Amino acid sequence: MDKPVRRVAIFALLLFFGLMAQVNYVQGSQAEDLRTDARNSRQYADVFNSPRGQISAGGEVLVVSKETGKDNPKYGRTYKDGPIFAPITGYFNGNATQVERAYNSLLGGKDTRITQQRWFDTFIGKKAEGANVELTIDPQAQRTAYEQLKAGTAQGRRGGAVVIDVKTGAVKVAASWPSFDPNEVAPQTGEKGGKRLEQLDKGDGVVKPLVDNALSQTFPPGSSFKAVVSAIGMQKLGLNSSSTVNTGQLILPESGRPLPNSHDSGSCAGSAPLRGAFAESCNTSFAKMALDMGIQELHDGSSRFGFGKHVQLEPDMYAAESDVPVSIKDAKGNTIETGKDGTARSGIGQENVRATPLQMALVACSIANDGKIMNPYVVQKVRAKDQSELYNASPKEFGEAMSGDQAGQLEDMMRAVVSEGTAKNLAGRRVAGKTGTAEQGPGNPNANWFVGFSPVENPRYAFAVMVEAPGSGASNAGPVAAAIMAKVLQK
Amino acid sequence: MQSIGDQIRAHLPYQRRNAASLALLAFAMILTLSAFAEVGLARDGNIPGGLFVYGGGLAVLAFIAYFFQAKFTPYADPLLLPLAVALNGIGLAMIYRLDLDTSHDRKVAAAAGRKLLPDAADAPGQLMWTFVGIALFVGAVLIMRDTDKPDAPMSFTPKTAQRYTYLIGLTAVILLLLPIVPGIGAQINGARVWIHLGPFSVQPGEFAKLLLVVFFAGYLVNKRQAMSLIGKKVGPISLPRARDLGPIMVIWFFCLGVLFMQKDLGTALLFFGLFVSMLYIATQRVSWVVIGVGLLAVGVFVATLLPFMGHVNQRIDIWQNPKPYFDGGCLLDSGKVVPVNPDTDIYKKYKAQGSVSPGFSACAELGGEYSDSAQLMKGLFALGQGGVLGTGLGQGEPWRTPLSFSDFIFDSLGEELGLTGLMVLLLIYALIVQRGMKTAVAARDPFLKLFAGGVSFVLALQVFVIVGGVTRLIPLTGLTTPFLSQGGSSLMANWILIAILVRMSHDARKPAPQAIQDEGMTQIVSTR
């Protein structure tokens, strides 16, 4: 009987070998597939099991993770003044947006910069704690911007504001109205949060709360785009601020209809130096410049300012693409070229020209910074829990949009807008810039812009403010910008 | 030629290995105490009080067991007790770790005024059953006397076994039948294998398993000569006589019938493998294996055709292709699987109507067979989460696995201990089985050989069926994972199993009795 016992013993061993092979197959080869299987809720729930890092700005802690007392999610997310800072922080509910998304691996403690440093914790299976992110945002100015936009925007419409440090590109303000409260969709809200998110995503009319109006939404820039056209004109047509330009009536070549100016007096009476036409925002001069250069030149020239690109603020955090289109596709997919009339209207920031407030702030940045645009960024530092520095932003040049001399002339032209042009109402408020009042079709309020820099004599910050409201850039956007800049300059 | 058993016996050192056993036991305790410490450190950042209650309690019990083993079975195999203690300790630590979570759930549920969780990890209960199990181990070691003293009470000698063979067989059958008796039987998680005894739920099948080994060993010892020699030869295989086959077939069909009615394919498979292997050991005839496997194949095929055996069908479908069944799938006659999970409209419809099992109702409307692979898949997800090194005890999320403390405890351990930990666990099982097989080979008596071989194989098969099930090597069937799963019946039966092996290894390894030396002149008795 020993022989069959031995055979049964071998058979039993084979059973164990079978099990070992299968366990190796499942935990070795299949593990990755299992972890990422769409049905596997662990991968979504796992992110709620360790505290995420904090997000702070100007020494003020804005976003923290707190224990919920539940097993899932174990940690929630609390946003201080959620709607005010949402355009930068974004939200986190397993999925994430903005900084919550761009810095997900650091905030969640999964980044190799943390795990390499804490390799022993990783080895013993201890979860590394998320790192803390410090924003470039000036929280007080951000609050002011939010309140100002809220007050200045028409019911059911949008407003956005961006302020950039011209020397570094650090974003000081990126505010949006309306906004949403990330607390409402944070992990601890569970299913309710998911429903709220769906509701927010749908939006109401043009208002899409999840889309911030500072970085992620484009508007017709209107006359504020004349700063770009002027710069291109200086380069392509050899103009300077004192060159005489035609400011009288312009008949559009295709339709034969006149392109009006807001007024036919002062500089807009027939001809004037470029400086005057700019200060008083004579449409005809810039439409004519656009016609002289053609839409392709306009398109190419503006791309040096960042048009036609998704400007990258942080890894995996991009702004919406601003554009001066040579042609567009209509709803049926047919290509429609931008004709002569369209080119003329493009020159005054109408037709199909679109820009984000961030993009217009970059335009102002180039003017205030000797033609150089600094790459915008919103995260200054990342520190591990033990305060060791994991990341520190180093300013990078985005590009050179014009020469220092041209920038100096445009700087002066922008000062003229406030001293003698369309924004005289802002005199003495430490801002210079270009107004813009873009029509958005019948029944819609104008997109009112004020794009410029501050302080006036020695610019340190570039800004762009857009509010959709009846009225003009000077009367609506200008004061908003002045109020924000007053707060920024308080430091 | 010497048999293998004789060869082994010739080389056996015939010495007591108690020191080795004690050292291994100490190692097993270090393993267990470390597991408790890790749970505490991972969860609360300190050594938990449970370390002293549970780890300390288990240590005391283990050393008591060791004391009795060393005193009454000094030649016993030194590995069996430490290996069993290590498994029991790791299982206890895991249940303790899960209990921390579920007791948290309980607190939350109580605070919200909801009903407490009906079944959950219960570490104090498991410690109590460990105590009972080890007490049974000690008791069994004491009661089962040396086979050399056949008049000792309940000794496992061929004589006593033969005397009680049919009584033991009958007891096993009664135990198997108990769960389907209305009133005391209970269906838990789709299998009717439980009975209620006062406040306790008992799985009588766990004990029937051991009794069936005794019955078969006793029966086969009597019949093996006839069964292995007599029979018509048809082609390459020789058929057994009807009168040898008859009684086997009776109990065989009976067991299978009962188990199919209880919808417990796992236990059926277990008993079946046991019968076949013991028949083979007893008769050395491959024909028995062929007949056995053939019968099982027919049995399973017939079962899958029966409409009320859909349960078995589903298990096989899910095993082959689990993904479409996640959270509920409906197998249509065309072979197509339609999802009926909570995201589907048809599910929502029945949910809105207040159906107890909306997925099932939805599938009934579609005219298919409803199955849910969520348990299996979630277990696999746990294994995937663990990967090679595991998350570390106390640092995974094993509560996401259904039945993480019982049927799926192997997956829970796989999550937190990883592939490396599971290899260790499987090696421990394999070692116990192989030490048992070695005992069978070394045993002098055919009954003991059969018995030790059968007991060892049933352990191997049980591990294979449940672990193979939760790792998707074979279709999933519910069985306890020996020593690891939460549950009194399983712990008690398996501790008795270890006691039997310990006692038998002692008998097999102890020195042959010394011839009585002359102490003088041989007395000559005159017959005149």
UniProtKB/TrEMBL annotation, chain A:
<dbReference type="GO" id="GO:0071972">
    <property type="term" value="F:peptidoglycan L,D-transpeptidase activity"/>
</dbReference>
<keyword id="KW-0328">Glycosyltransferase</keyword>
<dbReference type="GO" id="GO:0071555">
    <property type="term" value="P:cell wall organization"/>
</dbReference>
<keyword id="KW-0808">Transferase</keyword>
<feature type="domain" description="Penicillin binding protein A dimerisation">
    <location>
        <begin position="52"/>
        <end position="133"/>
    </location>
</feature>
<dbReference type="InterPro" id="IPR012338">
    <property type="entry name" value="Beta-lactam/transpept-like"/>
</dbReference>
<dbReference type="InterPro" id="IPR050515">
    <property type="entry name" value="Beta-lactam/transpept"/>
</dbReference>
<protein>
    <submittedName>
        <fullName>Peptidoglycan glycosyltransferase</fullName>
        <ecNumber>2.4.1.129</ecNumber>
    </submittedName>
</protein>
<dbReference type="Pfam" id="PF00905">
    <property type="entry name" value="Transpeptidase"/>
</dbReference>
<feature type="domain" description="Penicillin-binding protein transpeptidase">
    <location>
        <begin position="159"/>
        <end position="485"/>
    </location>
</feature>
<dbReference type="GO" id="GO:0016757">
    <property type="term" value="F:glycosyltransferase activity"/>
</dbReference>
<dbReference type="GO" id="GO:0005886">
    <property type="term" value="C:plasma membrane"/>
</dbReference>
<dbReference type="GO" id="GO:0008658">
    <property type="term" value="F:penicillin binding"/>
</dbReference>
<dbReference type="InterPro" id="IPR054120">
    <property type="entry name" value="PBPA_dimer"/>
</dbReference>
<dbReference type="InterPro" id="IPR001460">
    <property type="entry name" value="PCN-bd_Tpept"/>
</dbReference>
<dbReference type="Pfam" id="PF21922">
    <property type="entry name" value="PBP_dimer_2"/>
</dbReference>
UniProtKB/TrEMBL annotation, chain B:
<feature type="transmembrane region" description="Helical">
    <location>
        <begin position="483"/>
        <end position="502"/>
    </location>
</feature>
<keyword id="KW-1133">Transmembrane helix</keyword>
<dbReference type="Pfam" id="PF01098">
    <property type="entry name" value="FTSW_RODA_SPOVE"/>
</dbReference>
<feature type="transmembrane region" description="Helical">
    <location>
        <begin position="447"/>
        <end position="471"/>
    </location>
</feature>
<feature type="transmembrane region" description="Helical">
    <location>
        <begin position="21"/>
        <end position="41"/>
    </location>
</feature>
<dbReference type="GO" id="GO:0032153">
    <property type="term" value="C:cell division site"/>
</dbReference>
<keyword id="KW-0133">Cell shape</keyword>
<dbReference type="GO" id="GO:0015648">
    <property type="term" value="F:lipid-linked peptidoglycan transporter activity"/>
</dbReference>
<protein>
    <submittedName>
        <fullName>Cell division protein FtsW (Lipid II flippase)</fullName>
    </submittedName>
</protein>
<feature type="transmembrane region" description="Helical">
    <location>
        <begin position="47"/>
        <end position="68"/>
    </location>
</feature>
<feature type="transmembrane region" description="Helical">
    <location>
        <begin position="200"/>
        <end position="221"/>
    </location>
</feature>
<keyword id="KW-0131">Cell cycle</keyword>
<feature type="transmembrane region" description="Helical">
    <location>
        <begin position="80"/>
        <end position="98"/>
    </location>
</feature>
<feature type="transmembrane region" description="Helical">
    <location>
        <begin position="417"/>
        <end position="435"/>
    </location>
</feature>
<dbReference type="GO" id="GO:0008360">
    <property type="term" value="P:regulation of cell shape"/>
</dbReference>
<feature type="transmembrane region" description="Helical">
    <location>
        <begin position="265"/>
        <end position="282"/>
    </location>
</feature>
<dbReference type="GO" id="GO:0051301">
    <property type="term" value="P:cell division"/>
</dbReference>
<feature type="transmembrane region" description="Helical">
    <location>
        <begin position="164"/>
        <end position="188"/>
    </location>
</feature>
<feature type="transmembrane region" description="Helical">
    <location>
        <begin position="289"/>
        <end position="309"/>
    </location>
</feature>
<feature type="transmembrane region" description="Helical">
    <location>
        <begin position="242"/>
        <end position="259"/>
    </location>
</feature>
<dbReference type="GO" id="GO:0005886">
    <property type="term" value="C:plasma membrane"/>
</dbReference>
<feature type="transmembrane region" description="Helical">
    <location>
        <begin position="126"/>
        <end position="144"/>
    </location>
</feature>
